[in-house]
Prior knowledge:
Oligomer: single chain
Number of domains: 1
Number of strands: 16
Helix content: 25-40%
CATH class: Alpha Beta
Radius of gyration: 23 Å
Distance between the termini: 53 Å
Shape: globular
Amino acid sequence: MSFDLQVEQHHKLAYAGDAVMVAQQLQNPLRNAVTIVSATGEAMSTADLMGEEDYVRGKSRDTRNPELGTDNTRRWLVYPEYAVEHGKTIFKEDTFKQMMDPTSNTMRKGIAAVERGIFDTILGVEKKSNGTFSVTGTGIMGRATEGKRPGAASALPAGNTIAHGGLGLNTEKLREATEAMELENFGLETEDEIFSLISPKQKTDLLNLALATKVNLNQFDIDQIKSGRPTSLLGITWMFSNRVPVNATGNRLVPLWSKSNIVAGFWQDLQSHIWNNPERKNLPYVFTDALLDCVRHQDGGVRIVECVET
């Protein structure tokens, strides 16, 4: 096959600029539910970015300067071993024209795929061959790299999971999870935003809870839940996704977390480029990628509610 369409410099510039605009339109909702930072180097400590400190009481006539100690262990954002990537060779001229159109589905598909990869990295999940998702990597639900220097990765403690008790999502589990997070000492004087991600099954549970409690609830709130848009209820901002993971027994693992406690570091946010690939008969090639890591600053700011789905 020969294909002589040349990707000119103006094509490259126009595509890269349009891709940034499309990426902004397709941003996944988890970006607004965590703390986003720009990352540099091989690793960055979350304590240096957002660690809290306490005061000391000094004697009124003491001339010594107070010195607050630092933790010997830290949580780390680590330069990722693998990027989130998507690539596609363009074989037809009409496909090339569609790739240059920011409103076309052809252009948006690759960008949306990488944005889903960013979503999975932040949440700490990965898609399995059977189509379900499991907890893996780092992120909200995965392992946290810690140590005086980046070292071992630790999973979320078992005590942070609320057992299913043979039931789905209910007020007792939610209160147990939120109370446990409230009792943790984050050194916060202002109320932190609490988020949760649920699947369609828990959306049904949530609607039933909303209709049963009728606490500060009106038809607008119910419509928001039904539509699948982020909405606040029972002190939690709810988001909806089919990418909520399950455990080995098939029970859904619903995460709750505080926004300030989850740090997502981007070495490179989503970018997309187009060029002629000499290794593929000089066919136009589109490449989209992002470089990021995500970690819990403290385990106490995350709870998992295990839910049975009927």
